[in-house]
From TrEMBL:
Keywords: DNA-binding. Pfam families: TetR_N. This is TetR/AcrR family transcriptional regulator. It comes from the Bacteria. Residues 33-52 bind DNA. PROSITE patterns: HTH_TETR_2. It comes from Candidatus Competibacter phosphatis. Residues 12-70 form the HTH tetR-type domain.
């Protein structure tokens, strides 16, 4: 099976610029057109439509993008090197945002699912969870071999995000508080296991 093409940093930045531009215009109390968003983001109309084929999809996602905590801000006053605590804090922040914006996120997820799987010319989604995960893991980054670090990030990404909310809400039928308790246990267990593995390897 052919692996999907990984979007370039420039493509991700352009997508982010469009979201920020839309958010700024919406804060002015109006519903912008795609032309207005493109102009605000300093990109062409064609570029804007490549990333967001419909203005509705952009306007749904823009407020959600703004609601996600900035990793630098989240940990600005946290000198701790307790990685379990930091990862749990990051997940708690994203968990709160997701459950506060459930309706919009379901629309966003539905738009992503309906996307043409053969079209990998642009990023399908904005990767908001990985920057939070990486910021939380920063104090332990040097302790983890590259492969182990990437595996841990991938495992945590399964717990972070809207998809886990769908599982807890729709499949398991549990409420937000119960879901948060389970996810807190899961992310801590994953971090603990990864760090223990790295310690064991270093001692051999």
């Amino acid at each position: 099976m052919t692996r999907p093409r990984k979007p370039s940093n420039q493509e991700l930045r352009t997508r982010k610029d469009l979201l920020l531009a839309a958010s700024r215009l919406m804060k002015q109390g109006r519903t912008p057109t795609m032309d207005e968003v493109a102009a605000e983001a300093l990109v062409s109309r064609a570029t804007a439509y490549r990333h967001f084929p419909k203005i509705e999809a952009l306007l749904v996602e823009a407020p959600l993008d703004a609601a996600v905590a900035d990793p630098r801000t989240l940990f600005a006053d946290d000198p701790s090197d307790d990685v379990e605590e930091r990862v749990d804090r990051a997940e708690a922040s994203l968990h709160e945002m997701i459950y506060q914006n459930e309706a919009q996120l379901r629309i966003l997820l539905a738009n992503s699912i309906r996307r043409d799987l053969t079209d990998d010319s642009i990023p399908a989604r904005q990767n908001r969870r990985l920057p939070l995960i990486e910021a939380a893991l920063a104090p332990a980054r040097a302790r983890l071999p590259e492969a182990d670090y990437e595996r841990l990030c991938a495992a945590l990404a399964l717990v972070f995000g809207v998809e886990s909310m769908i599982v807890f809400r729709d499949v398991l039928g549990v409420d937000s508080d119960t879901a948060r308790t389970v996810k807190s246990w899961a992310v801590r267990a994953l971090v603990r296991a990864a760090l223990q593995d790295s310690t064991s390897i270093a001692a051999e």
